[in-house]
Amino acid sequence: MRRLLRDLRPFLSTIWIFVAPLLLSPILFYGTKEAKCIFSICLCTLYWIGEVVPIAVTSMLPLVLFPAFGIMSTNETSQQYLKDTTMLFVVTLIAAIAVEECQLHRRIALNVLSHTSGRFTWSLAAFSVATAFISFWMVDTAATALMIPIAIAALEEMGKGDEEEGSTQTSVTEIGESHIGPDHGHVGKLFDGLSRRDRGMWKCMVLVCGHASLIGGTGTITATGPNLIFRDNIQTWYPEGQTGVTYLSWMAFALPPLVGYLIASWIILQVVFLGPRSLLEIVRSPKGENSEKAEKMNRAILNAKNSLGPMT
After folding, report:
1. Are 20 and 41 within 8 A, CB to CB?
2. Taking the model in full, what pTM does it have?
3. Which of 61, 154, 158, 222 has the smallest number of Cβ neighbours within 10 A?
4. Rounded-to-integer distance, Cα 148 and Cα 109, Å
5. Which among 257, 307, 128, 277 is positioned nearest to 197, based on CA atoms?
């Protein structure tokens, strides 16, 4: 039996293509449009989970299933793929690629960080603000992917010894331009050799990028998927009415709580990973080893900022 399963393993994806519809076929016996819709959605879900075909191909299945089952016409179904909300989402992804290509995210982050004097608690706040601002204009996932390498580069420089000062600029530049992936296993090794407090600092810096990108995604109506879906639904429900939901009115509504969320995230991360006493560093200058680390981080940030050159 085991040998049979081992021999069938290369063909599991192909087998699943036919098995999944058979498992769901009892739903079709209800004969209603709702049941057929459930069948179509579940089939797409099973194909996505099993990855039997590329995800993009599975996404096109409704174009075949909905007209075939009489749920929606081909014209109605295809229109859902090219709605203005969908295109707006695609444009934000294109904008994220453009920002990465021209290194705009690094300029924003490094310019904000250059005013923190390398003090960790304020560097954490600066990363939070910079990530949230970038997340205003692009998908939160892309904002996180762009900012985490910069955060890790700054943390690595903070942990370097004075004898390695000459390599500061290269390290920040190279790591800041890359993404977290399989080639960055050295990050895990560095983390394992850190002290308890330094580990807490790494956790804070990485998590604040994720927190801030999600929080920043609430700031504009185009920043994240749920906001776009809300906008699309409100326009569908009230096609002739004035809903009052505009780009500026959304920002006026969302920005005040957004600031509160960022401050709460900044404080909570420090309390959880560095302890309540770390909040004293907000008003107290670092001393001893912490002062040296602040100087190293500040030098690394300034060198990386200068390496970018002028905007034009």
Report:
1. no
2. 0.63
3. 61
4. 11
5. 277
